[in-house]
Every structure is written in C-alpha cells, then in structure tokens.
Amino acid sequence: MSKPDFNLLLTLDVLLAEGNVARAAERLRLSPSAMSRALARLRETTGDPLLVRAGRGLVPTPRALELRETVSQLVQDTEAVLRPAGKPDLKSVERTFTLRTSEGFVENFGPPLIARVSDAAPGIRLSFVPKLDRESSALRDGTVDLETGVIGSGMGPEIRVQALFRDRFIGVVRAGHPLSRGTATPARYAAGRHIGLSRRGMPHGPIDDALGELGLQRDIATTVGGFSTAVALARASELIASVPERHTGNLREGMHSFPLPFPAPEITVSLFWHPRFHADPAHRWLRAIVLEVCGQPH
Fold this sequence. Notes:
- This protein is α/β, with parallel strands linked by helices.
- It is 38% helix and 23% strand.
- The chain contains ten helices and eleven strands.
- The strands form two sheets. Strands 3, 4, 5, 6, 7, 8, 9, 10 and 11 form a nine-stranded mixed β-sheet that branches. A two-stranded antiparallel sheet has the order 1-2.
- It is rod-shaped.
- The N and C termini lie far apart (66 Å).
C-alpha cells in the first residue's frame, strides 16, 4: 500500500475552507489547473468527490463536512511542529539541568547563577557534578547538559563552544604571610614553598615554564587536584597557592592575593554543550544566563 501524500492535507484544508477552486489556487499560489489536478488526486485518495457542483458553485459532500474540522486541526498541529521554537514560559518549566564543572566555578559563580535561575524559573533545578576529566562523552550521551572549563584534546569536534571569560593566575597566601608584606619579586616568590595543581599528580606547568625562563624553580611541597583545595591549604599554612583569579574570587576572601611577578599564564574558560540541545529554548535561555553571570565582575 502506497503512502499518502501529506502535502494534500494542506490543499484539502484550503479547498474545504474556500469552497472554490480558483480562490483556493490563489491562496496557495497555484494555477487553477494545478489546483484542479490536486482536487482530482484528493478525490482518488479519499474515494469521495468532496466538492460537487451546485449551480455555479461547489458544495461539500457529507464526507467533506466530516473531514473539515479534523483536517484543519491536523494542519494547525503540523504548522506548530514545524514552527521554530519560541521563548519558553519560564514560570511553568519543570526541568533539571546538569552542569559538569569545577568546585571553584560552583563556589564562585554558583550562588548568583542559582539566584538568577530561581527568580526567573522556579521550576528549574541546577545539578552540579564534578569535572574529573576533559572527555565529552557525558555531553554526547545527554547525562550532562552543560560543561565549563578549558578546551582540551578530549573534547569532541561536534561540541559547541562559547567563551565565558579570560582568567589569569595570581598568587595567594594567608593574611600575615611574608609575601603579604613588601614587593613580591620573582626570587621571593620562587623561594617560598608552593602548592602544585594537577589532576594527574604532575604539578609542572606554565608557571614553572615562566620561572624557568628566569632561571628560577619553585619548591612544590604538595600537590592537589583543585583550586578550592589549594586556597584552603594556603589559608591554613605558610604555603603559596597560584590559582585563577576569577575562578577563586569568593574563596580568597580575607587572604592576601597578588599578581605573579612575571608574565602570568592566562586561560579562557568556556561553556560546552552538545548540538542536540543547541536549539532547545530552555537550554538556550540557561546558556545566556550563565554567560551573563560570568560576564559580571565579582
């Protein structure tokens, strides 16, 4: 059995609404002959004449009258499906979005982000999960809606990317630490004991490269896997933490922060998502909120 031509639904809807071949042809921007051929196909498909001659005009058959309301609703529903998604009614959306990000991002940007979302869309919940690697499999399989971080080699080529902000590394020590007094020269900085940052336990990085160009080397006393842990250790010890400035704004309150006394490495923190969610209205709205919150000074 051959499949019906669904384009005929629109033609039938207009014919039944107009009750006139010429007017229906004009409305659909077809020639009268093309519309007559379409009516012939409709008659063949439905097994009913649909419109029959009555004097100088046409009148619908009982079958046509029976179909008119159903066909009109089908056409409206089809147009709604094919119409570009509009702005969601945020007050009525019930949904949980999962964001994979670092603890530092949650601690620094989480409060204003949650406040903005709760105010505009009380039915939307944010679930933050830790970022343990730079693989994009969680975005691909849909278990994560959004991710933040620095672009890595494990990121799939199809993943969408939006830069959120630039961040630079700074030094941070407890209040009263020797580096909180006087000028933090490269030599003074390198002479202290440091907290290394590495998820893989290998602390050597861009900061060490920059020091090496000056003929200096820092003493890594311990290595941790996150910015918040590094700041917490520095707060309670004589150790020096070197962390991204904006990522740790709230965490460093009450401590002494200082620009690194040599060209400091910078990073671009970005937002990632899978193309399957790119056109989703609520997802698009949330991305805009994240971008706005991260663009505000903290």
